[in-house]
């Protein structure tokens, strides 16, 4: 049972976590700290948080669990504000989509990553933002990746693991670099492609026609381009190197597809499409 949970960033990801914990009666009191007053008030009215804090210091005062759930560009500032204000038994975790930048931010603020800071990343979400978009079932049957460092405190790791399991997730552990490479390919690149495709089409003169006559495939593929632009700007900047590598590989694949079409090589195209279909069908229903 978490006595006092400080939620720094009361958005979709953090609010969904506390909703799930509240449903399981696994948290007694949630204090929220954020940016916009409107979202915080809404979170209070919805019962997501029990109290609004006006500073990070007030939010973390007496908290045994601190969850940092802001866009990556805001993490370092929050670390700086909580420095020297945390209780001795406080466990700190985050939900950021890139882990190296969180570790680097912690190193820069605290000199070494505090043993009771356990970096984390839930592999769940929607293209919606804010407390009002949150729901308790978001993590049911989903994975949460924790990237604990060598100096981690085992008790803190166990508490963060237990928290996510109570929220319905399966917890897996991974190295920081491995996490960032895997997520660059499976999440960050698809978002980049969706934003790029929608932008390219929207800037064409005939864009009204394109959006009007776009079939289900375009709608499915472009859904994630509705995600919060600040969050995705921060992710792309924080995961630059792995993202550039995976983008380079993908560009080569696109070049191959282009050559096949140019060469009227339908057999090669069929082979590529069949390989891709088989790979996808093997992993998803
Ligand atoms: P969100 O719904 O937009 O929530 C972020 C919250 O942080 C907002 O309420 C925002 O306040 C607040 N905030 C922004 N800057 C702040 C600052 N400087 N100080 C205090 N609060 C600040 O975003 P989210 O989807 O929950 O994402 C949060 C984190 O989760 C990100 O780091 C993202 O990488 C990670 N993540 C997201 C997903 C996903 O699919 N969405 C999945 C996994 C992980 P306002 O309400 O005033 O804007």
What CATH architecture label of the largest domain applies? Answer: 3-Layer(aba) Sandwich
Q: Bound small molecules, which ones?
A: NADP nicotinamide-adenine-dinucleotide phosphate
Strand content: 5-15%
Instruction: Please mark out the parts with pLDDT under 50 across 5 or more consecutive residues, or reply none.
Output: none
Oligomerization state: single chain
H/E topology pattern? EHEHEHEHEHEEEHEHHHHHH
What is the rounded Rg? Answer: 21 Å
Overall mean pLDDT score? Answer: 96
Domain module tally: 2
CATH topology of the largest domain: the name is Rossmann fold
* Class per helix and strand makeup: alpha/beta
Distance between the termini: 37 Å
Biggest pleated-sheet summary = 6 strands, parallel
Count of DSSP H/I helices: 12
Helix content: 40-55%
What is the CATH top level name of the largest domain? Alpha Beta
- Gross morphology: globular
The CATH superfamily of the largest domain turns out to be NAD(P)-binding Rossmann-like Domain
Q: Identify the strand order in the major beta sheet.
A: 3-2-1-4-5-6
In short:
With 285 residues, the protein is an alpha/beta fold. It has helices at 12-23, 37-45, 56-60, 75-82, 100-110, 154-166, 176-202, 207-213, 216-222, 229-238, 240-262, 266-283, and strands at 2-8, 27-33, 51-52, 65-68, 91-94, 117-118, 120-122, 143-146, 170-173.
Summary tags:
285 residues; alpha/beta; Rossmann fold; 6-phosphogluconate dehydrogenase C-terminal fold; 2 domains; 6-stranded parallel sheet; 3-stranded mixed sheet; 9 strands; 53% helix; binds NADP nicotinamide-adenine-dinucleotide phosphate
